[in-house]
Design brief:
heterodimer, A: 6-stranded parallel β-sheet, 7 helices, globular, B: Glutamine Phosphoribosylpyrophosphate, subunit 1, domain 1, Rossmann fold, 7-stranded antiparallel β-sheet, 6-stranded antiparallel β-sheet, 23 helices
Chain lengths: 186, 547
């Protein structure tokens, strides 16, 4: 319940607003809506809305930032102020060694060995294996990336998985919305 | 820094045994009525006296030939053996670096002697008489974070208070006098200037810089920022500031410290904690501070990264209390001692969740009795809240992070506890310290940009969302394993031992409950380490109902 209290405006995985600190390698990079380090990366953001729900941080080996300085540092402070989760996308062991890695909330990637190393350092609950996008389709069609989005969003606590009871109630049409539609709401 | 010795007609073999446990540091003094072996010592002589001084902070080659002056100017201990007259040990002015004495005494050839050591364990392991826990000390570790009145976990082994003098009299007895500590005697004046504090800090760091290379610890707060700025001015290029996570669910400390280092143009190293090293770090910390506190387990990764690099660690100990106006009195109608006790012993709020009801009562009663002994004489003092916090929290608990953990691998300096800095700060009227109001003006002439940069605590944050290592599944399992062992298990609240990991994690996510759990884990590790000395022991005293 407490997790849901701080849900941002995106109420579905596919509507998550994903930012990044530079180009993110791999399929997960296709999910990025705005690069916070780009010239207009912060354009349109309100003082009380960081403009993103989650920020991907490419590892230093993949061309991402290694040092905490300049625009990278300012963007990370902004994320931290607004409780925006930062996820290091690690592709190499050395990605885990940088000062930037030390301040990311979670780590994600596809390399089993790198993720194993990350789990020993950061803990199982902070490290997430990114699944491949499912099926064919245009990159911008987010439903193709649903498993990946779910991994990220659930991993950083933006969405909590439904309990088995809630899932069952939904399947049986007993959810609140369904009861309301059927006119059986109390 | 490793030092041991004796004063009075003591037995050489016990000093030799303590020395062996400390790794056989060199002999410094060897007289009939006093002996000293140690590292980081400096010998000096004055007319009719032979003496040696020591400190975890590098000492100058030439020391003034007077123990009081050495205590005030260098915060060092001195063992003085006059040709005629009684030998004595004089403690440093801050009392932050510990020296322990075995006050239980020991008869050797009919003459008692008092043994001293920079560490508790050699005194405990070489005592020939019975050894038992000081349950008052343990109650205070639980309630306040450290044992009060110089207690240690072992009954009879005491830490010397600030500026104390231990004298071996001709009759063979040893006396500890604690009168004459100058700091509470400082009077404030509206004419006092913050410039004096800044000049004293600058002089202190500058003098140290002539004989040491610095490794400033840099957090997101004011004290470390000021010291790092001074170190950067003193040392120039090549300085690295060191930061780690304080494991409070935010990384603003690391981010703000990076901003500070960038502004100063110095290198910045962040040492992250490893999840798979939690058990190691907990054991390392409790061992380094000799099981007297559990405040800064998160500092271990940084301490081990720095250990042995030869640099003098700059630590901001004392800045918050003497400059920053920390621990102000609350505005309630309660008597002042009640308000101060409630604030300093805030962990008692959580005893119902973690401790057996009888234990909770014992912990509160035993802590309050000692607290009143320390705090009552300070009740009406203009800086009463400051000295109460210093004597009941800073010295018993916090000081062991620099002068227990960090000093294990490096020389350590705490310039905010320099005598001239403390006197200058106390000369400024109490009200002017409120809410850290002195910090920005103190720093502005040194580093104007940094004076305007908000601290980590000043940056508003919607929520602390980073997962804390201390509340992780791995940590919860380790804590549960330590606390459900006998004899600690008997101190737990009914049902707590059998609760699931999620319950333990929830408790560890709350400040006060977490403190109690950490302290009980410290006790468990103490029993484990000293099982051979203590035997099969039960904390029955702590389970008796308070009448």
């Amino acid at each position: 319940m407490t997790m849901q209290l701080w849900l941002r405006p995106a109420h579905h995985y596919t509507r998550l607003r994903i930012g990044a600190l530079g180009p993110v390698p791999g399929p997960v990079g296709e999910l990025v809506d705005r690069d916070l380090l780009a010239e207009h990366g912060q354009a349109g953001c309100e003082a009380d809305d960081p403009g993103v729900d989650l920020v991907l941080v490419p590892g230093a080996g993949g061309g991402g930032p290694a040092r905490l300085s300049g625009a990278v540092l300012d963007a990370l402070i902004r994320c931290e102020r607004h409780t925006v989760p930062t996820v290091l996308v690690a592709t190499a062991h050395t990605d885990l060694d940088t000062p930037v890695a030390a301040v990311c909330r979670d780590v994600a990637g596809t390399d089993t060995e790198v993720l194993g190393d990350a789990r020993r350092r950061f803990g199982y609950d902070r490290v997430h294996h990114l699944p491949e996008p499912a099926g064919q389709g245009r990159a911008r069609h987010r439903r193709r990336y649903l498993p990946l989005l779910k991994t990220l969003a659930r991993g950083v606590g933006l969405f909590t998985p439904r309990s088995p009871l809630t899932s069952l109630r939904t399947r049986l049409g007993l959810s609140g919305r369904m009861r309301h539609r059927c006119g059986t709401a109390r | 820094m490793r030092v041991c010795g004796s004063i009075g007609h003591a037995a050489d073999d016990r000093v030799a045994a303590m020395s062996a446990l400390l790794g056989d540091p060199p002999t410094v003094l060897d007289r009939a009525t006093a002996a000293l072996r140690g590292t980081a010592t400096a010998r000096w002589t004055s007319t009719g006296a032979e003496a040696a001084s020591w400190s975890p902070t590098p000492l100058p080659e030439k020391l003034p030939a007077d123990a009081r002056h050495i205590a005030e100017q260098h915060d060092a201990f001195s063992l003085v053996v006059p040709d005629s007259g009684d030998p004595y040990l004089h403690a440093g002015i801050s009392g932050a670096a510990p020296v322990y004495v075995d006050t239980a005494g020991e008869t050797t050839g009919g003459a008692p002697g008092t043994y001293l050591c920079s560490h508790v364990e050699p005194l405990a392991r070489t005592r020939r008489g019975p050894l038992r826990p000081d349950w008052d000390a343990w109650a205070q570790v639980l309630a306040m974070g450290g044992p009060l009145e110089g207690r240690t976990p072992f009954a009879g082994i005491r830490r010397l208070p600030p500026y104390a003098r231990l004298t071996a009299t001709a009759g063979g007895a040893c006396e500890i006098t604690t009168t004459g500590w100058p700091w509470p005697e400082v009077t404030s004046s509206s004419a006092a200037s913050l410039d004096t504090v800044r000049d004293a800090l600058t002089a202190s760091v500058g003098a140290l810089g002539e004989r040491a290379r610095f490794a400033p610890l840099l957090s997101g707060g004011w004290d470390s920022r000021i010291l790092t700025a001074l170190a950067a001015r003193t040392e120039g290029t090549g300085l690295t500031a060191w930061t780690t996570s304080s494991d409070t669910g935010t990384v603003l400390e690391e981010l703000v410290s990076a901003k500070v280092a960038g502004t100063l143009g110095i290198e910045h190293a962040i040492v992250p904690a490893r999840r798979d090293r939690f058990s190691h770090d907990l054991a390392y910390f409790t061992g380094a501070v000799e099981h007297q506190t559990s405040f800064h387990v998160w500092l271990v990764p940084l301490a081990t990264a720095l250990a042995g690099n030869g640099a003098t660690v700059l630590d901001g100990l004392g800045g918050g209390v003497f400059v920053g106006g920390a621990f102000p009195d609350s505005g309630s109608d309660l008597p002042v001692l009640d308000r101060r006790f409630t604030r300093m012993a805030k962990y008692l709020d959580a005893v119902g969740d973690v401790l057996h009801p009888n234990v909770a009562g014992q912990v509160a009663e035993r802590t309050r009795a000692s607290f009143d002994t320390v705090a009552e004489p300070l009740a009406e003092h203009p800086y009463g809240n400051t000295f109460t916090a210093y004597l009941t929290r800073t010295l018993p608990g916090i000081s062991l992070s620099p002068f227990g953990l960090l000093s294990r691998g490096n020389p350590v300096a705490t310039p905010f506890l320099d005598d001239s800095v403390v006197r200058a700060a106390l000369a400024i009227p109490h009200a002017e310290h409120a809410e850290g109001a002195l910090y920005a003006p103190l720093l502005r002439p040194l580093a104007p940009e940094l004076a305007e940069l908000p601290t980590a605590a000043e940056i508003p944050q919607a929520r602390r969302h980073h997962r804390r290592r201390v509340a992780s599944p791995e940590a919860a399992e380790r804590f549960r394993e330590l606390l459900t062992r006998e004899p600690v298990r008997g101190l737990l609240a009914p049902g707590f031992a059998a609760a699931g990991t999620e319950t333990w994690r929830r408790m560890l996510g709350r400040t006060n409950q977490q403190h109690l759990i950490r302290s009980l884990a410290t006790m468990s590790l103490w029993f484990e380490r000293h099982e051979d000395l203590l035997g099969d022991l039960s904390p029955d005293e702590l389970r008796e109902p308070v009448t």
